[in-house]
Structures are given as structure tokens and as C-alpha cells.
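Schema walk-through. Below, the input block comes first and the output block second. Nothing else is stored per chain. Lengths vary across the set, and this one has 331 residues.
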Amino acid sequence: LAGGRDPVGRFVVDRLAGELEGPVAAIDLGTNSTRLLVLDPSGATLAREMTITRLGEGVDRTGRLAPAAIARTVAAIVAFREQAESFGAVRFRAAATSAAREAANAEDLAAAVDEALGTPLDILSGEEEGRLAYRGATVNIGTAGEPTLVVDVGGGSTELIAPALDGSGVVAVSLPIGCVRVSERFLASDPPSQDQLLEARSAIRALLVGALDGQPALRAPRRMIGVAGTVAALVGLKLGAEVSDRARLHGAKLTRDEVERLGADLAAEPIRLRRERPGLEPERADVIVGGALVLSEVLAATGHFALEHSESDLLDAMAAGLLSDEPGATA
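--- output ---
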């Protein structure tokens, strides 16, 4: 019975608190999207899903999670749990990032997730988010020991992660810039004006300069890997590939010139036209320009002329942690 859809199976899994062997399910509650990854005990993928829920809608302005945003996210989690249970999942972990850690009412989200999933919500610090993103990004792209900078452009924050100069691990910095935050704060018109775009770039650049001056290790790597929705969307637009085509997107290269060109083309279009572009999720059309601005400025500030895209990220590291029984992997 354990691990099945029925209430008795759910009760058994909850009471045994991770002592059972079987598939595991990780859920990432991002500022823009909510994602699921289910792995079997060997690490093979059983399910990978993503729903745009915009949990961080308005958080930059109000400092609070909107009830409607919480409801959208919890509805996605309920559906994800049912899907994971159909595969017999016996362990779950749910983690939230920028929007939740900044919101004054994050406890409302945590209570709703606990009730829907039967698992406490783990609200990650910026550094924890960065370390997980680095682990996930580099596990399926061979780095051959080459120092690598990982950039994770999220909805509310952007993480920069690189090996420490003294070899003691990795340095992770989280900046309060992401595709949703930049769009809500600076890009008010549709399409955005040149003044709005310049103001957004200036604000992004100032944050990056401060972070890079404070952490010289972030300037050292000559290789960059980019993860998360903004990078995947820009790679998909370049290749004309759908976001579901992971094999084609994984490992694809994106140059700084391509990011600039794609960003300029998108910024010149109204949202209704962006929604019609092949390779771009319609729900991402209103925030992709903000994400492109962040990525462009990161490439320029770190002196990189190109990056590789990894389809593996924080979510993959969370799921792998559940399989290896690492701390923070919750039954």
C-alpha cells in the first residue's frame, strides 16, 4: 500500500518517515514557476513537470505573498503529489526560494504546503539555493575539473556560484534581481521604453559590480553554465526548440551577442506577439525581457562571451539529495 494514491498508503509513508525505499519527489516553489521531479531509486527520471504559478507576483512591491498566488502554487503542488504518488513516491521534499524568503507572510505558504503535501516547506537561503543550483548544474555537464561559474537567473533573485579561490568549496552570492522582479520594478509599459530598459540595466549592473568586487572568486572561471527558465527560454528561442525538448536544449551554447539580439527583439515587441513565438512559454512572455537583461549584464560584468545551458539545476540536486538521504531531504 505504501506510496500509492490511497489514503492508507499515504498514511503509511508519512508514519514511516522515509524508512521505505522507492521513488522520490522534489518540488521547487520558485518565484515564477513550480516544478516537480520524480526519480526512481536508480536515479532515472519518472516525471518532470513545470507550471507557471507566479508565486512572487507583487512581492517586490508589497512584501507579501498574494493569496491568489499561494492558491495557484498549492493547486500545482496537489496535482504534483498525486502524480508522484501514481509512481509510488515514498519521500518528498518541497523548497521555496526568493519570493518566500522575502515575504512577511511566508508562514501562510508553509502551512498550506504542509497541509497539501504532508511535508514541511524548506525555505532556502540565497546561499543554499546557489549551492544546490551549482551541484545540479555541474552534475550532468562534464567540467573536467575546470573552474566554472554557474548563473541561475530566477524570478526574484539571481545566484552566482563559483569555486572558492582557496579550494575550500564554492562561493555563492544571491542578488535581488530576477525576471519577475526586474519586469515589475522597471518595465512598466508594453513594450518597455528605452528609458525603462536603461534604468533596469543600470540597477542590475550596480548590484553585479558590488557582488563581484566583494567575491573575486566569481570573476576567476573562464567557463559559464546557465540554468533555469530564462536561460532555457532564450536557448529555445535561438534553436526554435520547445522547453520540453531537454536533449536539444541541454549543453546548447548561447553567446553574449545572441542574448543581446534576442533581448532587443523581444523588448521591441508587445507581450501579445511574444506569446506567439515558438519556443517561448506564453506565460513567460511578460518577464522574458527582464530575464534577458539580467543575463546580458551578468555576461558583460563577468567578462564572458558565451555560456552553456544545463537542464539540470537546483531541482535535480534536491531529488538526488533525497535518494542519498542527505540532510534536508524530508519524508
